[in-house]
Design goal:
Radius of gyration of chain A: 21 Å
Number of domains of chain A: 1
Strand order of the largest sheet of chain B: 1-4
Largest sheet of chain B: 2 strands, antiparallel
Largest sheet of chain A: none
CATH architecture of chain A: Orthogonal Bundle
CATH topology of one domain in chain B: ABC transporter involved in vitamin B12 uptake, BtuC
CATH topology of chain A: ABC transporter involved in vitamin B12 uptake, BtuC
Shape of chain B: globular
CATH architecture of one domain in chain B: Orthogonal Bundle
Shape of chain A: globular
Order of helices and strands of chain A: HHHHHHHHHHHHHHH
Number of helices of chain A: 15
Oligomer: heterodimer
Number of helices of chain B: 15
Strand content of chain B: under 5%
Number of strands of chain B: 4
Structural class of chain B: mainly alpha
Helix content of chain A: 55-70%
Structural class of chain A: mainly alpha
Strand content of chain A: under 5%
CATH class of one domain in chain B: Mainly Alpha
Largest interface: A-B, 51 and 50 residues
CATH class of chain A: Mainly Alpha
Chain lengths: 331, 358
């Protein structure tokens, strides 16, 4: 096999790995959209906020320390202890569940029955709010997430595959972190599917997604389900935040990367969990391949827009996405 | 007492269908215009022009443009920043290619070019609706910014990748470039804002505006009563982009003078203008002004309070600004989905009946 061909395969594999991360963020969108019809733009910022909180708790930072210092002229910044990673993740989860409750209680409870586009704009406001709160709580400097996840290329894979090509080929370069992310994503998705299929709350969640009124009439509390769904989205955001954060540091651009989940959703359809995963993989592979093959001809950095344009062109031919429910319009 | 239709008898159709049916409103309108044109240029200084007045006027044009598309025609767009960039770069290319033509014509032509680009990106709106369209316009945003970054023809192969506005004059007074006086900057923006607002107001009152609104309220029903959705949506995209292009051209040529596309016309700008029309009021020209004023003044006020009065560090105040803007958006959507314009309308209703409650 020629080296070029093998490098092409390497690009595809890396694209698949990146796609898993996109799919992870997209999953959070789908969960909330299915259950409440809210298109949650803040999902990306939730990932950022979760990662910031995790780092802050692990390092024992004092929340709002900058604010407190500015008001009272004090010089506090750290409690002086370090929290083990597992406990910190649990504490962050508690914070995300509280956040889910607060969002439901203070914002979306008052917006029930509004047009979807109003809800969407409210989540944009929420994204700004959360970003500001995150910065106020933990400061806006770039943080490193030291969870002890493996980093760098995997030598083992490189050694195993170097024999495939000729002398120009040195084996596949695959980031260990991406492999971990893939495994975690698979576990998470399996867990979510099991939860939705076999638990009482999961069934209630699916019932709400099917029909609000019918769910209400059999005694399911919409409020509870919505808090639950936002909490699950918070969990997904936390996992996505950990993966992206370990990869490129916890910083504002994290929430922009999450914007990439939007074309993923368009491709897969807003209401389909398998759609989110397949869409993520297609976008991941597509943009890496496009950058590899066409990118050098047009000056590179095509990753910024390729996903959107692909989704746009795709939607013109199939407006409900790959797996979305057929859009039926009634007057 | 003064704010009444009573006693103001209309004797012709023109009078009956004028923009401001109440006499007090007409006087107010002329007083505001006279104040803006005859008083402000003499008292304005550099700080006020740069910090508040000029950005307010430019954002007002952009907000009017987006309001036509989103507020009147119901097509949510997140590509405003990209379209402003088209206006800015079109203006730059025209200014440098045809230095002898007046800048005013360049700015209008830049608007026209943006209208063509906007209509092209509006084509998918015939198939794609709602959220899907909002995300699709993100394609315009990211693609256009990338294009202006990568293709060096757009910035005349300059090494920095920036575009700089050369000096141009109107009636012998420089309006772009480093030698521009504050009042000249202000006046040229004011002229464009006034013309744009009048045009937009009358377009939305006329048959075109009514077709847009029918598409917004229910597109299928509109189609059945004979509105051509292709024409309505594309004209909305074109007219909206025309205004946004003019705003972009002014933003670059008159206000900033030098522009780096990713910084000046990034996705944040799209959201900023969207917030302006949400807070101001969807489907209202007055709302566009109110929203623009609000979001231009808010950071300045916060900065004055936070940095100058309380002595907090600037980044902390910037974070507070995010929190406050985000909270305000949610607050407005919950309490008053029709924005500041609705408050204004309510106030006027009350005023008409004053001193009686009903």
């Amino acid at each position: 096999m020629s080296a070029d061909f093998l490098y092409g395969i390497e690009v595809i594999i890396n694209g698949l790995m990146a796609g898993v991360l996109y799919a992870l963020v997209a999953l959070g969108f789908v969960l909330i959209f299915k259950a409440s019809g809210i298109f949650n733009y803040a999902q990306g910022v939730m990932a950022l906020f979760a990662a910031l909180t995790l780092v802050g708790i692990m390092e024992g930072e004092v929340p709002f320390s900058h604010l407190i210092n500015a008001i009272f002229g004090t010089e506090i910044h750290h409690f002086g202890w370090e929290v083990p990673a597992l406990l910190a993740i649990l504490l962050t989860l508690v914070v995300m569940i509280f956040f889910a409750w607060a969002v439901q209680h203070f914002v979306f409870r008052h917006l029930v029955g509004q047009e979807p586009i109003i809800l969407f704009m409210a989540t944009i406001g929420l994204a700004y709010f959360l970003e500001g709160i995150g910065d106020l709580m933990w400061g806006s400097d770039i943080k490193t997430l030291a969870l002890g996840l493996p980093q760098g290329g995997s030598l083992w894979v490189e050694d195993m595959t170097s024999g495939l090509g000729g002398d120009d080929f040195y084996g596949f370069f695959i980031d260990k972190l991406d492999m971990v992310a893939t495994v975690v994503a698979i576990v998470l998705v399996t867990g979510l599917i099991l939860f939705a299929q076999y638990t009482k709350q999961g069934r209630a969640m699916r019932a709400v997604a099917d029909d609000h009124q019918a769910a209400l009439s059999v005694g399911i509390s919409l409020n509870f389900i919505w808090v639950l769904v936002w909490s699950l989205a918070g969990l997904v955001a936390l996992v996505a935040g950990i993966m992206w954060g370990a990869k490129s540091g916890v910083q504002f651009s994290l929430s922009l990367i999450a914007l990439k989940a939007l074309p993923v959703l368009m491709l897969g359809g807003f209401t389909s969990i398998p759609g989110a995963i397949v869409g993520g993989l297609i976008i991941g592979v597509g943009e890496k391949l496009f950058e590899y093959m066409i990118g050098p001809l047009v000056g590179g950095a095509t990753e910024n827009w390729f996903a959107y344009v692909l989704a746009l062109i795709f939607l013109v031919f199939r407006p409900q996405g790959l797996f979305g429910e057929k859009i039926i319009e009634r007057v | 007492m003064l704010y009444r239709e009573a006693g103001d008898f209309k004797t012709s159709y023109e009078e009956d269908s004028q923009t401001f049916p109440i006499a007090f409103d007409r006087y107010r309108y002329w007083v505001v215009l006279a104040f803006a044109f005859l008083v402000v240029p003499f008292i304005i200084n550099d700080y006020w022009a740069n910090a508040i007045v000029v950005p307010f006027l430019i954002y007002a044009i952009a907000a009017i443009g987006l309001n036509i598309l989103t507020g009147y025609c119901g097509q949510v767009s997140l590509g405003t920043g990209g379209f402003m960039a088209v206006g800015a770069y079109a203006c730059y290319k025209l200014m440098t290619s045809f230095p002898d033509v007046s800048i005013v014509i360049h700015i209008i032509l830049a608007g026209g070019i943006t209208a063509a680009v906007g209509a092209a990106f509006g084509l998918p709106s015939l198939r794609i609706k709602g959220f899907y369209l909002a995300v699709a316009t993100l394609a315009a945003q990211f693609f256009l910014v990338w294009l202006f970054n990568k293709v060096s023809w757009f910035y005349n192969y300059s090494a920095s990748g920036q575009i700089n506005a050369p000096e141009r004059t109107v009636f012998g007074v420089p309006v772009t470039g480093p030698n521009t006086e504050a009042w000249a900057q202000y006046l040229i923006c004011l002229v464009f804002v006034t013309v744009c607002a009048i045009v937009a107001r009358n377009l939305t009152r006329g048959s075109l505006g009514r077709t847009w609104m029918s598409i917004r309220d229910m597109d299928i029903a509109a189609e059945i009563i004979g509105v051509n959705p292709l024409k309505a949506k594309l004209t909305a995209f074109a007219v909206s982009s025309f205004f946004i292009g003019i705003a972009g051209a002014l933003f670059f040529a008159v206000y900033l003078g030098a522009v780096e596309v990713g910084e000046a016309f990034g996705i944040q700008k799209s959201f900023l203008v969207l917030f302006m029309i949400i807070i101001g009021g969807l489907g209202s020209i007055f709302g566009s002004f109110a929203g623009a004023a609000f979001l231009v003044v808010l950071p300045v006020v916060l900065k004055v309070i936070g940095v100058d009065l309380l002595g907090w560090p600037t980044d902390l105040v910037a974070h507070f600004q995010l929190v406050i803007v985000g909270a305000l958006i949610m607050f407005f959507l919950i309490k008053e989905p029709h924005g500041l314009a609705q408050l204004w309308r309510l106030a006027k209703e009350k005023l008409r009946l004053w001193p009686f409650p009903y």
